[in-house]
Structure formats: C-alpha cells, structure tokens
Design brief:
With about 425 residues, the protein is α/β, with parallel strands linked by helices. It has 13 helices and 15 strands. The chain has 3 domains: about 120 residues, Rossmann fold, CATH 3.40.50; about 160 residues, Dihydrodipicolinate Reductase, domain 2 (2-Layer Sandwich); about 60 residues, no CATH class. The chain is globular. GO terms for molecular function: nucleotide binding.
C-alpha cells in the first residue's frame, strides 16, 4: 500500500545500465511516490527497452545526458539518478546539480579526490540534496549493528574485521571498480564518532596477467583450445546456463522483459564473440585491478579496522563482518541475521530482520537498493533530508579513506588522513 502523505517525485535516469535499471524499479512498484519521465543512455537497445518499460515520450529519450544539462533545456524533474560510468560521474553531477536537480549518485562520486570535494561543494551551493549510493548503510540489520554499538552492547568497541570474498568468476568478469568501498564506508559509519587517522594497505595483481596465461590459450574464450580446463571461461559462466539472471543481464543489458531464452542465448553468444566479456582474462584487457588486498585503519582512540578482499573464493560477495568489543562480539555474514555473543553470560543472541517484504521487489544488495531509494524519495517528498543516511560530507570521508588506502598501497607507506582532507 502506498501512503497518501507522499508528494510524487519525478526523476530522470542518467545512464541506463545495471545500476540505473535497479534504482528505476522503484517507479514500477511505487508509481504514486515516484515517476520516471526521461532517460539519457547511449545504447539504443537499452533506451528502447526503458522507454517501453516506463512509457516515456519520445521527446524525453536522450542519447547523451549533456543534452539534459544544456542551458536551453529546462529542468525536467525533481531529481536525477546518475549511474554513468565512473569517470563520467563528476561532470554530470556538477552540471545537473547547477540546474537544480537533486542527485542520487552511484559510487564512486568521482575518480579524483578533488572532484569529489567539488561535487559536495557545488551541491551545497545550489541547495540540492546529494545522496551517494553506499546502499548497505540503509539495511535494517546494518542499522541494528549501529544501535547495538551505541548502546554499548559489546562494551567498548575495539576492532572491526571485514572480509570480501569477491568470487572467482565475479572477479574475472565484473570486478572493475572499487568493490570494497562498502566496507570502508561501514567502518567509518560504525566507528563514529571516532575519526580515522591512519591508513595502510598492501596488495597487488598476482594472477590475472599474461605471465599466467595458459599455454595454447587464445584471446577469446569461444575460440580457445584450452577453454574446457579454465575455471574463468566466459563460455562456462554465461553461455552454458543461459537465463535472465544477473550475470547475463549485465552482459546483454538490452534483453527485453518478454524475450525467450533462445533469443537471449543468441545475444549472449554475439556479446562473447565481439564484446569485452568474451576476452581472455589473462590477455590484453588493460586490467590493473589487484586480485587481493588488505587495508588497515587506525582510529583516534586506538580502535582499528581491517578489510580484506580476495578474488579466489567460492562465495561471491557474501560479505562477513566481525565486530569486537570488551564485553562481546557481533558477527554479520551479509545476510539478514546478526549474532551477538556476550562474554559475561556466554550466550548467543540472534537478531533477524523480518520486515523485508517491500525490499523483496528490489532485491539488489540484499534489499539495500530498495531501502536507499525509499529513503531518497521520502526525503524529497516529505522535505526531510534527515532521512538520508549517506549525505555528502559523510560519504566524502569514506571516499577520502579509499583514496588514502590506494596511495598507501602504491607508495608502501602509512598515510595520514589529514593529508587528504
């Protein structure tokens, strides 16, 4: 049921890829709260699919977001969902914020620290709401952890341990961004009001390079003579069990909602023959993303946090967090269950989040995509910016931590946060 207290918010999609389509689903399920009226997307197939899905007029379907930012084009909606490629976030956010759009911005804010800082300043100067999609913060179970820490349920917080098992197939084909930014943000969130002061990091690209390319391997999986012995084969991952699951929808984003599986299989095969996902992971993919990394955070009261990312795992993105206090321990394995172990009673208490019925319709990140969008729309509709859990200044700190960690890794030193503020 949709409440009548909501003023309908209108929005535009700037970038119609996987993340843009996920957030846009809110309009399908809550049409009284949120209506999409325009899209900017370079790929004609994706444009047509989204135009059909959301009944958009031809005049509101753009092949370039810059046309929306043109001074001769009036502001079309209340907000913009910016889900472009990472390197395009900065320019789009600056220009659309100056036109008065409230911004939902996919992480990272930008690929340069100075651009992140400028985005925050421009949104502040133009009095527009900026929400960065560190969506895990919006999960009820994550908020429960924050509540328990605030109540000193485990005593004084001493340390946090995060593990990100990327998944062997996921890393080889999708891992092209700062996947662990969620963990840095959660460390910042759970440790507050403590302030991170020092960061160190170690890691490198150890396996996915030409030196480890199997003898006889070709540059594409579909024509490779050793494909059957390779666990990272695109043929195995995408083609052998074709469906409309997440992996295939990312590979072929213009799949129609009512398209049969035979048609889907043809499109997947074409994408693997011609597109980047069909290339050998050991070949010339210009890949410089580390396949294992450790980040160590030191906070102003002596508390610490560690984050470990590793590519070579069975589990895919099933994050684990353990939080250690003087009187107890919290364990969260990225699902809807949190375990509290009390040192005094030596008993376990299990907290389960049961009210996820609405989130089930937008299941990305365990329902976090829904909770983030819902908070954004409610904040705009009810004029309550306090409903936002990832505001600009707070998200900027998380980004600074990420830039500091990468500097520490590359320069093999401990970085002071004050260097980057």
């Amino acid at each position: 049921m949709e409440s009548d207290e909501y003023r309908q918010i209108t929005g535009i999609i700037v970038g119609g890829g996987n993340r843009g389509q996920k957030y846009a689903e809110y309009a399908r399920h809550f049409p009284k709260r949120f209506r999409l009226i325009a899209i900017a997307e370079t790929r004609i197939g994706v444009r047509k699919k989204l135009q059909k899905r959301y009944s958009l007029e031809d005049k509101y379907v753009y092949d370039d977001w810059r046309r929306l930012a043109d001074s001769n084009v009036e502001r079309l909606a209340d907000c913009a969902l910016i889900t472009l490629l990472d390197r395009e976030h900065y320019e789009a956010t600056i220009k659309l914020a100056k036109k008065g759009y409230h911004i939902l911005l996919e992480k990272p804010m930008a690929t340069k620290l100075e651009h992140c800082k400028e985005i925050v300043q421009v949104c502040r100067d133009n009095n527009v709401l900026l929400v960065v999609c560190h969506v895990l913060r919006y999960l009820p179970i994550v908020k429960k952890i924050k509540e328990l820490l605030g109540n000193n349920t485990i005593g004084k917080l001493i340390s946090i341990q995060h593990i990100e098992p990327v998944g062997f197939w996921h890393f080889a084909h999708s891992y092209v961004r700062a996947k662990c930014c969620h963990y840095l943000d959660l460390s910042h969130y759970w440790m507050q009001p403590r302030r991170c002061t020092d960061i160190s990091s170690f890691g490198k690209l150890m396996h996915f390079n030409r030196e480890n390319k199997p003898i006889g391997a070709s540059d594409r999986c579909l024509t490779c003579s050793v494909e059957s012995t390779c666990p990272y084969s695109a043929k195995k991952i995408y083609l052998e069990k074709v469906s409309r699951h997440r992996k295939v929808s990312v590979l072929v984003p213009d799949i129609e909602d009512d398209e049969n599986l035979d048609q889907v299989k043809i499109k997947v095969k074409q994408a693997l023959e011609n597109g980047p996902y069909g290339k050998c992971v050991y070949g010339d993919c210009n890949n410089d993303v580390v396949d294992q990394q450790v980040v160590i955070l030191n906070f102003d009261d002596g508390a610490t946090a560690t984050m470990q990312m590793v590519a070579f795992t069975e589990k895919s993105c099933q994050r684990t967090s353990r939080i250690f206090g003087t009187h107890g321990e919290l364990t969260w394995e990225g699902e809807d269950t949190l375990i509290h172990y009390d040192f005094l009673t030596q008993k376990r208490t299990v907290y389960e989040e049961t009210d996820l019925s609405a989130a089930g319709i937008m299941s990305g990140h365990g329902g976090a995509d829904f909770f983030a969008m819902d908070s954004f729309i409610r904040a705009l509709s009810l004029n309550k910016p306090e409903l936002i859990g990832t505001g600009p200044e707070d998200s900027l700190i998380s980004h600074i931590m990420a830039f500091a960690a990468e500097t520490a890794r590359k320069e093999n030193r401990v970085c002071k946060m004050d260097e980057f503020l």
